[in-house]
Amino acid sequence: MHPRNIYKNPPDFNKLRIEYPEFAAKVHIDVDGKIKLNFNDQESVRVLTQCCLMKDFDLKVELPIDKLIPTLPLRLNYILWIEDLLNHCSIKENVFGIDIGTGASCIYSLLLIKMHTQWKMFALEIDKENLKYANKNINYNQFDEKIVLINQEGSNKIFENLFKHDSNHKTFCVCNPPFFSSKNELVLGSENRTGKRKRPRSSYKESSTETVFTEGGELEFVKKIFNESLELKEKVEIYSSMFGCKKNLLNFITVLKHHDIKNFTTTEFVQGKTFRWAIAWSFNRNLLNFEDHTSKKKFEKKPNVLTHTIDDEFETTHSKILNLLSNLKINLKLINKNEKDKYFKYELEALENTWTNQRRKRRAGNKLDESSTFHESASASQEENIVMGFEIYKSNLKSSVNLKIFYLRGTMSRDCVNQILQYIKNNLK
Amino acid sequence: MVYLKDELENSPEMDKPPKKKFKTDKDNFRYGNYRNYYFKRFGAESKTDIRLEIMQYHSEYFKDKQILDIGCNSGLVTINFAKLLQPKSVLAIDIDANLIDMARKNLQKEKANFNLPEEQLAALNRIIFRKANYILTDRTLIEHERPQYEAILCLSVTKWIHLNFGDDGIKFLFKRIYKQLHQNGVLILEPQPFSGYKKRSKLNAEILENYKAIKLKPEQFEAYLLSDEIGFSESWCMTDSEILEQSNLPKGFHRPLQVFVKR
Question: Whole-prediction pTM value?
Answer without folding.
Answer: 0.71
